[in-house]
Every structure is written in C-alpha cells, then in structure tokens.
Amino acid sequence: MQKDQYRIQTTSYYSSIFTLSSTLKCSYQVLFGFAYSYEGADMPLACLTDFEAHARERLSKSSWDYIEGGADEGITRDDNVAAFKNTSMCKTGQESQEHQSPRIRLRPRYLRDVSEVDLRTTIQGEEISAPICIAPTGFHCLAWPDGEMSTARAAQAAGTCYITSSYASCSLEDIVTTAPRGLRWFQLYVHPERQLNKQLIQRVEALGFRALVITVDVPILGNRRQDIRNQLNLMMNLMQASIHSTKERNSIPHLQMSPISTSLCWNDLSWFQSMTRLPIILKGILTKEDAELAVKHNVHGIIVSNHGGRQLDGVAASIDALTEVVAAVKGKIEVYLDGGVRTGNDVLKALALGAKCVFLGRPILWGLAYKGEHGVKEVLNILKNELHISMALTGKDPLVIYTLVIRSAKVMFAEVKGHTLRTKEEL
C-alpha cells in the first residue's frame, strides 16, 4: 500500500514538472534543479518571530525560560506585544483570552515624494542610523559563547546605541575593546554602598560610555516563577559559560550576587549628578507623576519601560504608558520606549506617539542565539527595513508620521516632525 501511494505521488510530481516546463517553454531539467535547490535550502528568516522560534529550539529550557520569563502570570509581558496589535491579553487559569483594547492605527498620506527615506536621528546629541537601539539585558553568554562582545560588534556595525547591562557576562573592558567605535550607554542597578556605585560609574566613564541609565523599577526582584523552578539549571548554565570563557575576568559578574538598593529615592539623584558629567537616563518610568519628577530633578531622558513584564505584573503595557509620559515632560527631555516592539510598524507607532527611539530586549537575544553577531545584525536590519517600508507607505516627509489613536472616547491625531510630538485632540 505504501509503495503504491509513493508511486502515485511521485508520478504526480513528475507530471507536474513536465506540464510546467511545457507551459513556461523551458527545460524540465531547469525546473528539477530549481525544485531540488529550493527544497534543500534553508528558508530565510523574514521577521523577528522567526528568530524567536529558532532561539527556542536552540537554547536549553532554563535559558529560554530565563530570557522569556515574566513576573507572576506574565500578563504584562504578553500585553507589551499585544498592545501594539490592538488586543490585550487576559489570563484565566491556564487559558489566555484576547480582547480589544484602545486601537492604534496608521493614517497614510499619499502623493508624497518617498524616493528618499532617511531613518537617521539623534539621541542625547549622538547620531544613530535608525531609531532602533539595544536595551540592557543580562547574561548574553546564555545565548552565544562570547555574549555581549558579539552584541557590541553588531551594534557598532549597525551604527546604533547599545546599553550594556550591569549583569553583562563579559567584562566592560572586553566589550569596549571588541567594538571601540560603538555608541554605548551603561545601565546601573544601584548598590546600597555608595562607594561601589562611584567606582563603577568612574570606570564606565573612563571607558568611554556616553550615558548612565539608572534602572528605577527594581527595588526588589519581581516574582519570576520560571526562574524559581529553574534556578539550579540557570546557575549551572552560567557557571558552564564562565568555565569556557577565554579570560578569567569574563566570569559571572560579581554584581549578580550583589544586593540592589531598596532605599533609592528621588533626592539621591543629585548625588549621582555630582559625581559624573554623563547624562542620566531613568529606565522604568510609567506614570505622569514620575515623569514630572524626572524633569524636576534634571535628568536627561526617560525610558518608558515595565522591565519586559519581569517586575510588577499588571502594570500598563509600555506603548500604553508612553503618551502619558510624553505629555508630562512637555518636550523638555527625551523619551524612549522599550517593551513589545516586534515589527517596523511597532517602531513607527512608538515614534508617532512621542518616543525618540525604541530599545529592543528579547529580540536581540533571539538573534544572538541564532547566529551570534550576524544574527543580531539581521534582527536590526529586518526591523530597519520594515520601518523604511512603513514610513514610505505612510507618506513620510523626513520623519513625518500621521496616526489615528482612539483611547476611550477621545480621538487624537498625532503628527511627528523630527520625532517632536504635536497633538490635536477632539472629544
């Protein structure tokens, strides 16, 4: 039976090839060659979710759970992505349900010259090739042997900013050496002992980092259930990565086991400002009240972020919190966004709602797991190409984007020129 079935399928296949060759007036040998080469070739990765699937296959369960895990039920983690797609996630028991949330829609303008689309912009006075940067994430050695060094090289090649994490699995010196021309900011988890913070800040400043990003949403770690379940496996993976490092100083960062300050307050920011000339960016702001305080305390920028849904579950998706923060700062400081960005359309929506640029977290690690430095480059290039297409199709006028945002009963038309938000509201 199986042989007969195979014979029928094979006959049908050959018949199709000969029929097609006759129709196209070309040699059937050419079509056979095309069919075999296509069947044997690796399919190119077309979008960021393709990299996600590859990373899931290649990484150990504990490493994957660490990268993808969220706090508690993972509602905010999932909502970060869903909010861009005009749905939000509601979990009941083990089931997830989608329901409509406020809609974000692009309003294209046609008959405009889009022969040249320039993605370049600046952050803190430094030019980047596109408003797509790399967020701070820890332990890149879980995804690729030389970890953050590959990430830094990819960022340098792409002409974009890379925020190096306090929990980097490579030394800061090695990261700088491998990508000396790259634009780097440093992310700081504030230690309870001020002297240790001072030493680290002086070190990163001497190494040429161009900004200090203080994470404010981790007075304590969120309740990450998968990390609790996999704690032993995760530690073993980190130790194994350390053992295989080529240099002794590439061992597990000492900060990994260091405490994070639970008493950091607004008034402490003046102490940081007194010891460094680096611009200070606050990462983790989600509300109007905190955004106003950030301006009052003379910080240079805000990253609207919920830590990838890894801290307090149930807070707003980053894109939903963005408009509140942008309105509060009134253009006095730059506002950036991380969380949930998966397409060029997502980048466009964030820019239209007032973000100067977006920062990528998990997708960078997916690219790293796929092909190291080259995988990260591919992730950045795909997103840049998608943004280029979206901008051209909306009718750009160097970074002029029109969006229609429906929030409850309000309709807001947002116009962006050079990433400066101007809005008109109609009730």
UniProtKB/TrEMBL annotation:
Higher taxonomy: Eukaryota, Metazoa, Chordata, Craniata, Vertebrata
PANTHER family: 2-HYDROXYACID OXIDASE 2, S -2-HYDROXY-ACID OXIDASE-RELATED
Entry-linked PROSITE patterns: FMN_HYDROXY_ACID_DH_1 (PS00557), FMN_HYDROXY_ACID_DH_2 (PS51349)
Binding residue positions for glyoxylate: 66, 189, 224, 307, 310
Official protein name in the record: (S)-2-hydroxy-acid oxidase
Binding site residues for FMN: 136-138, 165, 187, 215, 283, 305, 338-342, 361-362
Family recorded in the similarity comment: Belongs to the FMN-dependent alpha-hydroxy acid dehydrogenase family.
GO biological process entries: fatty acid alpha-oxidation
GO molecular function terms noted in the UniProt entry: (S)-2-hydroxy-acid oxidase activity; FMN binding
Source organism of the structure: Oryctolagus cuniculus (Rabbit)
Active site positions: 307
Keywords linked to the UniProt accession: Flavoprotein, FMN, Oxidoreductase, Peroxisome
Reaction catalysis annotation: a (2S)-2-hydroxycarboxylate + O2 = a 2-oxocarboxylate + H2O2; 2-hydroxyoctanoate + O2 = 2-oxooctanoate + H2O2
Pfam families reported for this sequence: FMN_dh
Listed EC numbers: 1.1.3.15
InterPro entries the record matches: Aldolase_TIM, Alpha-hydoxy_acid_DH_FMN, FMN-dep_DH, FMN_HAD, FMN_hydac_DH_AS
This protein's GO CC annotations: peroxisomal matrix
Residues in FMN hydroxy acid dehydrogenase domain copies: 40-412
Signal peptide: none
